[in-house]
Amino acid sequence: MSPKVFSSKFMAAYCLVALSGCGLDAPETEPTARAEAVAQTQSELEYDPGSGWSLAWSDEFEGTSLNTGNWTTLNSDFDPVTNNCNFGTGEIEYPRTQNVSVSGGKLILKAERTAATTVSDTRCGAQQRTLFSGRLHSKGKVERRYGKLVASIKVPSGYGMWPAFWTLGSNVQSVGWPSSGEIDILEWHSNEPTWMKSANHWYNGGQADWGTGQSGGYNLADSFHTYELEWTASTMVFRLDGRYAGTTFYHNETEFQQNHYIILNLAMGGNWYGYPAASSIALTQGQPKTMEVEWVRWYQQGSTPPPTNTGVSNASFESGLADWTTWTPNGTAGAAISETYNGAHSGSYHLTHWSNSPFETWTYQVKTGLANGNYKVRAWVRKGGNFAIARLQGKTSGSAAPVYTTLGTYGGWTQIETPTINVTGGYLEFGFHTQATTADGANFIHMDDVELVKL
């Protein structure tokens, strides 16, 4: 689902796997036969990640409303994450929050045709639309790297349907696409209804693409199947219903060594279909189609329980410096400020350590009553200039030696973490300690989205 040109999409993901070649698509006829009959009504699909895997995060879509702690819905044809209109793919649907719902233990993205309706976003202008659908992402809420990312999904049949389950690098707002990296776990195309298509996109002196896929031998539409990515620092394996799908992706790109976030969307038309007119999409007014998701799960290797986020107060500085304390030995605490910044890792605010005079600042938060055990502090940072001290650190008492990681120079937002901190007395103070010994207005550190994780 990347903002790419038509030819690269096919050459990278489609031509690699399609037996029928790379022509433009026309509305398909219904398959005359399939190797395996699939019931239209199914109980929830079971999934076993195998030995050595622990569930680190999941959304089972229980209840009657979307968990907004996990997801953000889109209500515009402007994507605030990638900062473009129509998502760079020429899609002809307009996402709306009202087309995303949770019921019956499922997430439901509804595609529907309506009478011509004027919709407007000042960033993309007013337009008349007849096709509406749902799109949501986990940016700033669920961001991880490596492991097994898998979902149970039912995609809708019909010409022009383009359901997708995919990820983008969490630094996309600061570095842009494709430098952020993109992992397409599932893309489905109506002209090859038995195929799960998967792809990767990154930057290597220009846009770089890789694609694979697998035919299950049966129509994937209108019934639930599991779509899986197994991701390590050097490989990616894609699976359809637990079976190896296509070929392994071997990599060492930095785009795939960082956290990614999840996107689920039901697109229509666009470059993958050769930019068809809205009237040609197989969707009848009053007869919506749905992409349904029973669950999304992210597993990590290891048999121990997954890390637990203990809950940092005002972790992204949306409430200024509330819940944070600033200490300084020389009266330069004003070097620690919370500010609006367009390139923040998420949201509108972050913490900045900066002054055009020499300064030293320790901005920290205290947790008491912690369970004994091992912890790490994680945060997203950007840094430039020269510092005598630039650390993300934790201390188990006010006089204890800090456990810290030294901040490097990061042009784009980068997630860092401390070494393991052993807490035995329930007390931990953690945060950012910086010192600039000379006056240099080019010295800055931006910090955001702090986490305290129990291992």
Structure characteristics:
mainly beta; 455 residues; single chain; Jelly Rolls; 3% helix; 33 strands; 2 domains
Model description:
This protein is mainly β. It folds into two domains: 41-301, Jelly Rolls (Sandwich); 325-454, Jelly Rolls (Sandwich). 3% of the residues lie in helices and 46% in strands. It has two helices and 33 strands. It has helices spanning 6-14, 172-175, and strands spanning 53-59, 72-73, 78-79, 84-85, 94-95, 100-103, 106-121, 125-133, 135-137, 143-144, 147-154, 161-169, 182-187, 195-203, 207-215, 224-231, 235-240, 243-244, 249-250, 260-268, 289-301, 308-309, 325-327, 336-340, 349-353, 359-367, 373-384, 389-395, 403-406, 410-417, 421-423, 428-436, 444-454. The strands form five sheets. Strands 1, 5, 6, 7, 8, 11, 16, 17, 18, 19 and 21 form an eleven-stranded mixed β-sheet that branches. Strands 2, 9, 10, 12, 13, 14, 15 and 20 form an eight-stranded antiparallel β-sheet that branches. The longest helix is centred in the first third of the chain and has 9 residues, at 6-14. The protein is globular and about 70 Å long. Mean pLDDT is 86; it is low at 3-41.
